[in-house]
Amino acid sequence: MIPVEEALEIVLREAPVLPPEEVPLDEALGRILAEEVRSDVDMPPFDRAAMDGYAVRAADVAEAPVALEVVGEVPAGQWPGVEVGPGQAVRIMTGAPVPGGATAVQPVEKTRALDEFRVTILEPVAAGAHIAPRGCEVRAGDVVLERGRALGPAAVAVLAATGHSRVRVGRRPKVAVLVTGDEIVGAEATPGPGQIRNSNGPAVCAQARLAGADVRSLGTAPDQQDAIVGALREGLGADVLVVCGGVSAGDYDLVEPALEELGFSFRFTAVAIKPGAPLVFGRRGDTLVFGLPGNPVSAQVTFDLFVRAALLRMQGRGGAARARVGVELLGPVKNRSGRKAHVPARARWERGRLVARPLRSMGSGDLVAHSRANVLVVIEAERHEARAGETAEALLLDGFLEEDDAPL
Ligand code: AMP
Ligand code: MG
């Protein structure tokens, strides 16, 4: 068994960064940027009014209230045709270019129009107020998005604003998923004696999709080496093969010999992780393979820690690890395993701190308890327990981003 950190290092080292492809802006969401993006414009592109009001010379209104002559109007989208001379003002709308001569914009609430050609400015305004000077946010040529950035909605906005209607991103890894086990039946079936519904296949396919992969299911193979080899052959064109179940040391665990028969070589076959431990990682040419343990929570957690990291790295992401936070434990966590433990918990901001309640879980088969987790509390291999009140490390799961009202 190798430590979790070492296993992750090996995975990230072996995962090849795929060649980039160009996509239109409306397909960029969730992709990983394969190039540095620079702005082609100053932002704002001109001295921009930040309020509806009057462009004035601040010095003219130092003794306000004072009446000024209104010499024109600038709506957004028009270039000012006039300058603001001494004793003058120009009516201006939010987003419009500030005319030459003006040094501030006084919001309309602090003015009173006398007629079309005269306005009373009710209060003084500081020079520069309510004007965003040209280039104060970004200068043409500045880097606005770094290579390796995951493109969320805000980054998509930056691409659009800086003139990028197409963008180079990492290609989506092709992932093929095979589930193994004589006992496995589909979600539509009523399980017979000794049968179990296939939850890992759908879970792992969903996780791979969320990580940006192009996913294909290879179905379910029985616990026979020939059948597993046959099914895996269908997936050899993929960038990543994920096999669920059949990687423990039992008589019916035939995934490793099947992979060897296909010419894969292993980088590791066990990791000191709980849930997990049996966890196979290998490679044949540019195709990576992960053999995940069959227990549903083990499959999901090991996918999240290792396969997801590989998929993100292949798309050009740098670190590729889950974000971590410190949480105050609301209950104790035990770890008698001697492995690095990942315990499902619900975390929430409460009275000025982030607290987490470990979920009552029956273990690595308890996929319902796991589905309620929004963090995984991490307990180092050499620690036997963490007590209530302690601050522990926690990995954020996707559900963490949604606040809910259920009591902890
Ligand atoms: P294995 O790793 O094949 O020894 O399986 C360990 C446990 O996980 C057994 O209880 C299996 O029935 C269960 N299991 C294996 N594959 C799946 C699956 N696709 N969906 C749900 N449970 C599974
Ligand atoms: Mg099995």
Please name the defining characteristics of this protein.
408 residues; 6-stranded mixed beta sheet; elongated; binds adenosine monophosphate; binds magnesium ion
Task: Tell me the span between the first and last alpha carbons.
Answer: 35 Å
User: Main sheet, how many strands, which sense, barrel?
Assistant: 6 strands, mixed
Helix share of residues? 10-25%
Strand content bin: 25-35%
* Sheet with the most strands: spatial strand order: 7-4-6-5-9-8
User: What structural class do helix, strand and pairing data support?
Assistant: alpha/beta
Write up what this structure looks like:
With 408 residues, this protein is of the alpha/beta class. Helices cover 17% and strands 33% of the residues. The chain has helices spanning 4-14, 153-161, 200-210, 225-233, 255-261, 296-314, 367-371, and strands spanning 20-24, 37-38, 48-49, 53-56, 66-74, 88-92, 104-107, 111-115, 118-121, 131-132, 143-145, 166-170, 174-180, 184-185, 196-197, 214-221, 240-244, 265-270, 273-274, 278-284, 287-292, 324-329, 333-334, 340-350, 353-358, 375-379, 385-386, 391-396. It starts with a helix and ends in a 12-residue tail after the last strand. The structure holds adenosine monophosphate and magnesium ion (MG). The site of magnesium ion has 6 residues, from loops. Magnesium ion (MG) binds next to loops.
